[in-house]
Design a protein that fits this description.
Structural class: alpha+beta
CATH class of the largest domain: Alpha Beta
Strand order of the largest sheet: 3-5-6
Mean pLDDT: 84
Radius of gyration: 26 Å
C-alpha cells in the first residue's frame, strides 16, 4: 500500500504532483485533491522542487562542456571529463618525430607491416633503449611529483610534455592513432588511455600516469591523491606486487603465458579482476609490436622469451568486474561497474641470465648522489635535463616504488 505523501496516514490514490512528475521525483501520490494541493503549494514541497531543479541545472551545466556526441552517454561511474581540451602542444622542429606524428589519422607506417617474429635487439639498440627508458623514468617521476589535490590532469600533461621536450624526446602518445595529448592520465574508474582535461584531482582520487618517449620507452604507475581509502590502497599495492612477481620469473626459455599465470596467482585471492581487453607488448623502434603479453591465467598465448627481447608488463587490475566500456572520445576505457582500477608498467629486457628492468631508476650510492647535486648542469648521454639535474621526488613516487608501504590511508570506504 502506498501512503499519502500529504497527510502521511491514508492510502494514496492515483493523484500525483504534476511538478514532481515533470522533475522525475517519484512517490508524490496523495489521498485526495485537497491533500494534493496543500502539499504542492506548501513551502516544504516547493523547496523539494527547487533543490531538484538546481541539481538538474548544475548537471546540465557540466554536460554543456562536453562535445555533442558525449552528452547522452551513460557514464558507468561518478567521474566526468571537463572540456574543452587545451590545444595540441607543439614539438620543436629539432626533435625527431615518429612516423605517425604528422599523419592525419595518426597511423604508424612501420607498425602497419606485421612482424613475423619477435625482434631480438642488438647491442646498439639495447643501449638506445637503456637511454630512452632512463629518460622515461625521469619524466614519470618528475611529473608524478606534482600530483596533489587541485591540479588538473591537463596541467600534468603540460608538465610531462615540457619534461619530454627538455630531454629532446618526442612524447610517444601524441597523435598516436590521433590521441590528443602527451601522456595518458587515468583517474579512479578509468582503466587506461584517459585523456588529460580540465578536471582537478581531488583528495581520495587515485591516478595513473602512463609515460612513453620515442624510441620507445613505456612505463606507468598509479598514485594516491592525498589520503585514500583502504580498499584503493590495497588495490594499488596488489597491482604493484603482481607486476614485481611477474617480472621475477622472466628469463630465456620461459613461456610468455607464464606472466599471466603468475599475475593471476597474486590477484585472484584478493577477489580482484584482470582486464583482458588490453595487454603488454613488445616495444623498441615500434611503439607496439610482438610479443603480445596477456596478464590473466590459463591463456594459450604462444612464444618463449629469448635474450634480446624487450617488452612491457602492465596489468590493469579492477576492484570489481573485468568488463569495460569506452567513453565516446575514442580512447578512455572505464570499468563497467564504475569501480576503481589500478595499473603499473615496466619495460623489460631479457638477458642471457635473466632480466633487466630498463625503466627502473639506476641505483646510486649516497656519495655519488652528493656529487651529482653539486653539478650545476647534469646531462644524460648529451641530453640536458631541466633544472640542471634529475628532480628528486618524495611522495608519491617513492611510496609506489617501495610497494606502497607509506601510503596515507584514512580507513574509510
Amino acid at each position: 500500500m502506498t501512503i499519502c505523501a500529504g497527510c502521511g496516514e491514508k492510502e494514496a490514490s492515483r493523484l500525483e504532483c504534476p511538478n514532481c512528475k515533470k522533475l522525475g521525483i517519484k512517490g508524490s501520490f496523495f489521498c485526495d485533491q485537497d491533500s494534493d494541493l496543500s502539499l504542492i503549494l506548501g513551502g516544504e514541497h516547493k523547496a523539494i522542487h527547487s533543490i531538484v531543479q538546481l541539481a538538474a541545472q548544475n548537471e546540465a551545466s557540466k554536460e554543456s562542456t562536453l562535445p555533442a556526441n558525449m552528452r547522452n552517454y551513460q557514464f558507468t561511474g561518478p567521474l566526468r571529463p571537463v572540456y574543452p581540451l587545451s590545444a595540441k602542444r607543439a614539438i620543436p622542429s629539432h626533435i625527431k618525430k615518429p612516423d605517425y606524428a604528422d599523419h592525419p589519422q595518426g597511423v604508424s607506417a612501420c607498425e602497419s607491416v606485421r612482424e613475423k617474429r619477435i625482434k631480438i635487439l642488438n647491442e646498439e639498440e639495447i643501449e638506445a633503449m637503456r637511454v630512452v627508458c632512463r629518460l622515461g623514468r625521469e619524466v614519470l617521476d618528475y611529473t608524478a611529483s606534482f600530483i596533489k589535490p587541485g591540479i588538473t590532469t591537463d596541467e600534468l600533461d603540460a608538465i610531462c610534455h615540457q619534461a619530454c621536450v627538455e630531454r629532446n624526446a618526442y612524447p610517444s602518445p601524441l597523435n598516436y592513432a590521433k590521441f590528443p595529448k602527451s601522456v595518458c592520465i587515468s583517474v579512479n574508474e578509468v582503466i587506461c588511455h584517459g585523456i588529460p582535461d580540465q578536471r582537478p584531482l581531488v583528495e581520495g582520487d587515485i591516478v595513473n600516469l602512463d609515460v612513453s618517449l620515442c624510441f620507445h620507452s613505456d612505463l606507468n604507475a598509479t598514485y594516491p591523491v592525498g589520503k585514500i581509502d583502504e580498499e584503493s590502497a590495497d588495490l594499488i599495492a596488489t597491482t604493484k606486487k603482481a607486476v614485481e612477481e611477474a617480472i621475477a620469473i622472466c628469463k630465456p626459455g620461459v613461456a610468455y603465458r607464464e606472466i599471466g599465470n603468475k599475475i593471476e596467482e597474486i590477484v585472484r585471492p584478493k577477489g580482484y579482476s584482470i582486464v583482458r581487453r588490453y595487454t603488454g607488448h613488445g616495444v623498441h623502434t615500434r611503439f607496439h609490436c610482438e610479443p603480445n603479453i596477456v596478464h590473466y591465467g590459463g591463456s594459450k598465448m604462444p612464444g618463449k622469451m629469448e635474450a634480446g627481447h624487450v617488452f612491457t608488463i602492465e596489468p590493469m587490475i579492477n576492484l570489481g568486474t573485468a568488463n569495460l566500456d569506452h567513453w565516446r572520445d575514442d580512447w578512455t576505457a572505464v570499468t563497467m561497474d564504475g569501480r576503481r582500477s589500478a595499473q603499473f608498467e615496466e619495460t623489460i629486457l631479457v638477458t642471457e641470465t635473466g632480466f633487466d628492468i630498463l625503466t627502473r631508476p639506476p641505483t646510486t650510492s649516497s656519495s655519488s648522489h652528493k656529487k651529482k647535486k653539486k653539478k650545476s648542469k647534469a646531462k644524460t648521454d648529451g641530453i640536458a635535463t631541466p633544472g640542471g639535474e634529475t628532480p628528486e621526488v618524495g611522495t608519491p613516487t617513492e611510496e609506489v616504488a617501495n610497494g606502497v608501504k607509506e601510503l596515507e590511508v584514512d580507513g574509510t570506504s
